[in-house]
């Protein structure tokens, strides 16, 4: 439809052209045909001018419209992207909430299973206590014969709560139960607090002649003090004859008490097969320059143990102690670094442990060596902690992922005033930087209950299991039975190259859970 303005412009152009021709005809004296030609030429010029001007005006209008359309399209794209981001965030929240719910459900199921086991153990313990209480009048009436029989039971290798421990006093049930609980909780036998002379004589005579107690009594026999020269000679002989032994102590999760890691503890045997603890020979070995060879041998043993443990459980890990002398010695460290480089596939499950004093006194050489280990994927742990002053960000940058704090130090009320952070907030602070807090040297159930309030995820100590040596391959059933009552962690490792199927038998993997839960059940039973 032609617009009215266009018609008006056309009429005006015709009038202007006709007026021009009329003026030329009347005033200039030009003939009619010539004035008509001039009028047509003027009309043509006006038409062309109007067409060109209208085309330019339309082009500018179309350009502005296209620009507006582009801006609208860009705004629409931004809105679509924002909606997509919000939708992705909602989906991520839904997935995380579902995974968290599943994890909580699994945790609740695990705790319910633990409670069921506790109730079973509580019932068994109560039944045993009732049998012991019922047997008290009979043992009191049996006289000296039962005392002598109980004395023979004391010399047996299997630790059982003998009834003669309560014969001399012949106390009623309420006073006898705490003694029984104390002996069962510590895993060792002790006589009554005030034994009669007649009860002591039969016990003292058979002990020297009892061959069955030789294996069990060797670790607790009186040790003759050694001089530094004797210890140094024992260390050199142990290194040359390969008499370094690895003892394993489990680290368990709290409160489930499932074994998650093992700590490798070094012991050496002298020429008479007497065990020398690490704290007795490490200082002398460092002074003599032998600690580098010891650390290399320990690393070799720990890697062998870890490989065989991972055959059965891929989630298990092992803590291996490294001395400050090895970290500061370029020669010893290069040898250990080459070995760790060859076994870097085990780095996620192999944790290197250093003292707190070592990390606080790092020099340029030690810092470079520590960074070289961290670059190869190895994680670090701190032990021998003496205070709670930490720099979590700095430790995380160095590769520290675990910190072991003694339970007594963590539960000490004085630490809240001398440390930079309250102990109850320490686990949360370390967790923000990816560091797990481990409470070590736990020896009582009351400590476990208090540590749960501190949000401690891992625990280690004699309450769960003491350090136990690796049981040699092919141990007899008699040896296993003799070692069983001592508690702890006996691990039998079979050579994968030997005939027959490859096996890794952790005979007392749940010993920590059983001993801790049994102690808790005994505490509950004592209040009944």
Produce a short descriptive summary.
This protein has 528 residues and is an alpha/beta fold. The chain has 20 helices and twelve strands. An eight-stranded mixed β-barrel has the order 1-2-4-5-6-7-8-9, surrounded by four helices.
Task: Give the strand order, joined by hyphens, for the main sheet.
Answer: 1-2-4-5-6-7-8-9
Quick one: overall form? elongated
Number of strands: 12
Radius of gyration: 44 Å
Strand content: 5-15%
Q: For the residues shown, what is the average pLDDT?
A: 75
Q: Stretches where pLDDT falls below 50 for ≥5 residues?
A: 146-222, 473-490, 492-516
Biggest sheet features: 8 strands, mixed, barrel
Give the class from helix and strand content and strand pairing.
Answer: alpha/beta
Number of helices, counting only DSSP H or I runs of 4 residues or more: 20
Helix proportion of residues, in percent?
55-70%
Measured distance between first and last alpha carbons:
105 Å
């Amino acid at each position: 439809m032609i617009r009215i303005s266009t018609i008006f412009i056309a009429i005006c152009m015709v009038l202007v052209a006709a007026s021009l021709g009329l003026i030329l005809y009347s005033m200039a004296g030009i003939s009619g045909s010539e004035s008509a030609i001039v009028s047509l030429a003027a009309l043509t010029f006006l038409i062309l001018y109007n067409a060109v001007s209208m085309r330019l005006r339309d082009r500018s209008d179309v350009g502005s419209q296209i620009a507006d359309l582009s801006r609208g399209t860009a705004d629409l794209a931004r809105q679509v992207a924002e909606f997509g981001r919000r939708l992705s965030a909602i989906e991520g929240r839904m997935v995380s909430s579902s995974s968290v719910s599943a994890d909580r459900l699994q945790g609740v199921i695990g705790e319910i299973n633990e409670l069921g086991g506790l109730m079973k153990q509580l019932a068994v313990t109560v039944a045993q206590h009732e049998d012991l209480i019922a047997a008290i009048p009979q043992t009191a009436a049996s006289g000296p014969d039962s005392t002598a029989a109980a004395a023979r039971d004391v010399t047996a290798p299997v630790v059982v709560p003998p009834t003669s421990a309560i014969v001399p006093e012949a106390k009623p049930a309420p006073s006898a139960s705490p003694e029984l609980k104390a002996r069962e909780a510590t895993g060792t036998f002790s006589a009554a607090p005030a034994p009669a002379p007649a009860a002591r004589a039969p016990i003292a005579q058979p002990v020297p002649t009892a061959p069955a107690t030789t294996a069990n009594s060797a670790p607790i026999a009186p040790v003759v003090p050694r001089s530094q020269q004797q210890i140094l000679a024992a260390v050199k002989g142990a290194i040359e004859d390969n008499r370094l032994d690895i003892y394993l102590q489990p680290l368990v999760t709290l409160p489930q008490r499932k074994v998650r890691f093992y700590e490798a503890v070094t012991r050496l045997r002298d020429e008479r097969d007497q065990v020398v603890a690490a704290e007795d020979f490490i200082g002398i070995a460092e002074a003599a320059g032998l600690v580098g060879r010891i650390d290399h041998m320990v690393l070799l043993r720990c890697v062998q143990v870890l490989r065989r443990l991972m055959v059965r459980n891929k989630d298990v890990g092992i803590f291996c102690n490294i001395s400050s002398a090895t970290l500061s010695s370029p020669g010893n460290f290069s040898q250990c670094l080459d070995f760790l480089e060859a076994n870097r596939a085990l780095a996620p499950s192999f944790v290197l442990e250093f003292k707190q004093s070592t990390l606080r006194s790092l020099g340029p050489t030690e810092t470079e060596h520590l960074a070289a280990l961290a670059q190869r994927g190895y994680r670090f742990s701190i032990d021998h902690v003496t205070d709670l002053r930490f720099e979590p960000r700095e430790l995380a940058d160095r590769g520290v992922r675990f910190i072991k704090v003694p339970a007594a130090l963590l539960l000490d009320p004085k630490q809240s005033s001398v440390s930079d952070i309250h102990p109850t907030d320490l686990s949360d602070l370390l967790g923000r930087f990816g560091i797990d807090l481990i409470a070590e040297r736990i020896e009582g159930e009351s400590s476990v209950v208090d540590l749960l309030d501190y949000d401690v995820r891992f625990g280690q100590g004699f309450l769960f299991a003491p350090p136990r040596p690796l049981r040699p391959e092919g141990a007899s059933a008699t040896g296993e039975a003799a070692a069983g009552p001592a508690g702890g962690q006996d691990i039998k490792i079979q050579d994968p190259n030997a005939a027959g199927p490859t096996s890794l038998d952790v005979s007392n993997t749940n010993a920590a859970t059983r001993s801790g839960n049994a102690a808790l059940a005994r505490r509950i039973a004592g209040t009944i």
